[in-house]
Write a structure and sequence with these properties.
Elements (H helix, E strand, L loop, with lengths): L16 H6 L2 H27 L4 H24 L6 H29 L4 H24 L12
């Protein structure tokens, strides 16, 4: 495996078909992250439609679960073909998203209840903040290999 293609969360495996096609880890992560962001936002909008505008925090929690699982599957099976401890890897992956979810749970009511923004607009604005948080977290934690695993730091 090339030094540019380090699997997420310390798991092992060769690059998946997507990383082999794109050939640049940063671009692959950016594309998959963008896809995941769109899917997560659309899930939020869909669940919000089902639950109603007043239940935007419940919609956020449900969309979070769907978004994290979707992203994990994309990174684990499309970007990298990996083997390893599925649940441990998922937990490490989720810990980064939990920080973003906490920020989202604080900012969304502030923007909706205090600033009186429409829920979907408020969530769209928050996505910019949480996307940066997720990128930094994954870069420095989820997708970083430790020297004890025998791989390079990334």
């Amino acid at each position: 495996m090339s030094p540019e293609a380090v699997p997420p969360a310390g798991i092992s495996g060769p690059p998946g078909w997507f990383l082999r096609v794109v050939r640049d880890q940063r671009v692959a992560f950016l594309i998959v992250g963008a896809i995941n962001t769109v899917v997560g936002y659309l899930c939020f909008a869909g669940i919000l439609t089902i639950l109603g505008q007043r239940h935007y925090l419940a919609a956020l929690a449900c969309a979070h679960v769907v978004g994290v699982l979707f992203a994990f599957v994309l990174y684990r099976f499309v970007v990298f073909r990996v083997r390893g401890h599925l649940l441990a890897d998922l937990w490490r992956f989720e810990t980064v998203y939990l920080s973003a979810l906490a920020v989202n749970f604080v900012l969304l009511p502030v923007l909706v209840e205090l600033a009186h923004l429409p829920v979907l607009l408020a969530q769209a604005l928050i996505v910019f903040v949480t996307s940066v948080m997720s990128w930094v977290g994954h870069k420095n934690y989820s997708f970083r290999r430790t020297s004890s695993s025998g791989d390079l730091h990334r």
